[in-house]
Amino acid sequence: xxxxxxxxxxxxxxxxxxxxxxxxxxxxxxxxxxxxxxxxxxxxxxxxxxxxxxxxxxxxxxxxxxxxxxxxxxxxxxxxxxxxxxxxxxxxxxxxxxxxxxxxxxxxxxxxxxxxxxxxxxxxxxxxxxxxxxxxxxxxxxxxxxxxxxxxxx
Length: 154
Fold this sequence. Notes:
Elements: H1 6-37, H2 40-62, H3 69-74, H4 82-100, H5 102-123, H6 135-153
């Protein structure tokens, strides 16, 4: 994030934490829906259907205009995988949260996100600016992994 005011940085951090709170509730909400629907697949389906409605409302409010088809066609093939990544996350959450519990699932998921993000940052995947792997970043991720083990064990 570019250096800016402390208020902007704190606002971004607070919003990112809010996204984490919402993400923490999402698997349990979907699992409850799936249990009432009788199948995990319905929990995932409804998740994306409600998400489609929500994003439709966002587009109608902000009216960003239609994307340029030529520019989309010119993008890398992997940029279309975001929806598959979301479906993978939701499907695994539907299956694993009832077995592992929310805290175990989410701490393991966050550990996986952090390991992958370190690789993404280091190599500058997806056109992002490369950021060095530092001892502090590695130590932070190792602490999260230790946290996963603590949550699972105790």
